[in-house]
């Protein structure tokens, strides 16, 4: 250990070796959204804790066990955001975006989220999501649009081994009927006290229980698919048809519940088969009642969030490395004091002209400086000593071929721009 401090448990540093990939992943996940009319939005990383308890759900693990509550003057009024859907809807309502023009309001975001989970590979206490929300419209084409955009984003990264699980969670008409039937079924099982309590508060969550002894008892559980009302059935069928028409493959998963309480109708999850236990690389769905839950008008909405950390792991699992453009085009190597001043000025000029350039800092000899030039990934090294400068020249060395040519100082910027085109 070379420092007294370590990154907090469940967090990690995104270091230069992978940060290029992380940025490229964030860009790739967002690119399809930008092409589909979604505008960028940012919200604070902390909010009124009640926004999450009401929005995400009082009985969810996220709210009961995983919130980072901030203590302000002895009271826990604020919490770090565990997700952004509730915040984005809060921001939309606060700014009256839903009244200012066309619905749906379509926004996308990219940011860190915080959940106090038991850390393991792919599960962190600070993690990153790129997400999208389409607020204020009930239209199966909107659900399909978002799913297609997510699949296109994964495909654009070259990912292949991911699958989409799809379900409908019904609406306020049919879900309560199903809930009662499921509760009745669960009461008859041999379950521990905690699980029985969960069955009373949020029976659908029990379907998501990963323990084999629980799963074994759930074989004959009533399925929501059999309880969907006509409207929900027709809506779901349209989403499925639109996805099929867009060549999106999906697996119907009648037990897909998701860990947040606001979902209604369409719900989906993207899983990657190379990730072990933390296989969900993204997920989302429709949340038609959330606006009312946080004090707004009826605003049927749909959205998703894709996990950046897990998408990076999925790329690793598939052996995909994203080609990074080298950071610098030019690396300047001065020989002597006068050359330092001249080349430093040239580097500044090149940067101002839009050519990326770096400089051999620290008084280094030619050999060490040329090694730095190679390591920098630059295409050209710019070398000059007193004799070159006396003739108003610099040496331009192509680091791929090794060819070196003298170039007049006042022609350098133009020459480099031409060669780099
Ligand atoms: P979520 O399923 O909780 O949904 O999170 C979405 C994605 O974030 C997950 O599929 C996963 O890739 C990533 N993720 C979640 N927790 C962790 C963690 N502890 N460590 C690493 N990655 C993680 C939501 O957050 C909803 N807000 C999605 C949504 C948007 N629904 C409607 N609109």
UniProtKB/TrEMBL annotation:
Keyword Ligase annotated: yes
Listed Gene3D superfamilies: Anticodon-binding domain, Bira Bifunctional Protein, Domain 2
Taxonomic superkingdom: Bacteria
Catalyzed reactions: tRNA(His) + L-histidine + ATP = L-histidyl-tRNA(His) + AMP + diphosphate + H(+)
Limits of the Aminoacyl-transfer RNA synthetases class-II family profile domain: 24-325
PROSITE patterns: AA_TRNA_LIGASE_II (PS50862)
UniProt entry tagged with the keyword Disulfide bond: no
Coiled-coil intervals, chain numbering: none
Keywords, alphabetical: Aminoacyl-tRNA synthetase, ATP-binding, Cytoplasm, Ligase, Nucleotide-binding, Protein biosynthesis
Alphabetical list of Pfam families matching this protein: HGTP_anticodon, tRNA-synt_His
Annotated HAMAP family: His_tRNA_synth
UniProt name for this protein: Histidine--tRNA ligase
Organism: Streptacidiphilus monticola
């Amino acid at each position: 250990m070379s420092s007294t401090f370590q990154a907090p448990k469940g967090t990690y540093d995104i270091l230069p070796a992978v940060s290029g990939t992380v940025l490229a992943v964030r860009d790739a996940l967002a690119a399809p959204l930008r092409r589909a009319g979604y505008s960028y939005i940012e919200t604070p990383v902390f909010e009124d804790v009640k926004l999450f308890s009401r929005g995400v759900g009082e009985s969810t693990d996220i709210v009961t066990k995983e919130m980072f509550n901030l203590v302000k003057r002895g009271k826990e009024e604020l919490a770090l955001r565990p997700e952004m859907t509730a915040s984005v809807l809060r921001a939309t309502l606060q700014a009256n975006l839903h009244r200012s023009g066309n619905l749906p309001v379509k926004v996308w975001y990219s940011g860190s989220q915080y959940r106090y989970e038991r850390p393991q590979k792919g599960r962190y206490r600070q993690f990153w999501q790129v997400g999208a929300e389409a607020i204020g419209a009930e239209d199966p084409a909107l659900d399909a649009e978002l799913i297609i955009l997510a699949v296109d984003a994964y495909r654009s990264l070259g990912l292949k081994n991911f699958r989409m699980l799809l379900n409908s969670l019904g609406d306020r008409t049919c879900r309560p009927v199903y809930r009662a039937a499921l509760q009745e079924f669960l009461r008859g099982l041999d379950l521990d006290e905690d699980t029985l309590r969960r069955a009373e508060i949020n029976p659908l969550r029990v379907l998501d229980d990963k323990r084999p002894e629980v799963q074994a008892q759930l074989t004959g559980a009533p399925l929501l698919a059999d309880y969907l009302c006509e409207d929900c059935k027709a809506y779901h069928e349209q989403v499925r048809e639109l996805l099929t028409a867009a060549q999106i493959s999906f697996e119907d998963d009648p037990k897909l519940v998701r860990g947040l309480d606001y979902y209604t109708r369409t719900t989906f999850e993207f899983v990657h088969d190379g990730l072990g236990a933390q296989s969900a690389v993204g997920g989302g769905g429709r949340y038609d009642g959330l606006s009312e839950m946080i004090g707004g008008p009826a605003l049927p909405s749909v959205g998703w969030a894709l996990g950046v950390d897990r998408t990076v792991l999925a790329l690793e699992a598939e052996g995909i490395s994203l080609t990074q453009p080298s950071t610098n085009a030019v690396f300047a190597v001065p020989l002597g004091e006068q050359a330092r001043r001249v080349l430093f000025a040239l580097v500044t000029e090149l940067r101002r002209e839009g050519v990326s350039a770096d400089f051999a800092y620290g008084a280094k000899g030619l050999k060490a400086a040329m090694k730095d030039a190679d390591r920098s990934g630059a295409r050209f090294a710019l070398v000059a000593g007193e004799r070159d400068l006396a003739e108003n020249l610099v040496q331009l060395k192509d680091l791929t071929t090794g060819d070196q040519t003298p170039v007049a100082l006042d022609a350098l910027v133009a020459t480099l721009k031409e060669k780099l085109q």
